[in-house]
Amino acid sequence: MTQYKAPLRDIQFVLHDVLKVGQHYASIPGYAETDRELVDSIIEAGAQFSENELSPINRNGDEEGCHFADGVVTTPKGFKEAYKKFVELGYGALNAEPEYGGQGLPASLGIVVSEMNGTANWSWAMYPGLSHGAVNTIEAHGSEEQKTTYLNKLITGQWTGTMCLTEAQAGSDLGIIRTRAEPQEDGSYRVTGTKIFISAGEHDMAENIIHVVLARLPDAPKGTKGISLFIVPKFLPKADGSVGVRNQVKCGSIEHKMGIKGSATCVMNFDGATGFLIGPPNRGLNCMFTFMNTARIGTALQGVCAAEGSFQGALAYARDRLAMRSLSGVKAPDKEADPIIVHPSVRQMLMTQKAFAEGGRAMVYWLSTFTDIVLKGQTEEERKAADDMMSFLTPIGKAFLTEVGFEAANHGVQVYGGHGFIREWGMEQIVRDTRIALLYEGTTQIQALDLLGRKVLQTQGAMLRQFTKIVHKFCKAQEANPAMAEFVTELTRLNQEWADMTTGIGMKAMQNPDEVGAAAVDYMMYSGYVTMGYLWAWMALAAQEKIAAGTEDVAFYQAKLQTARFYFKRILPRTQLHRAVIESGMEVLMQIDAEHMAF
Question: Which residues are catalytic?
Answer without folding.
Answer: 441
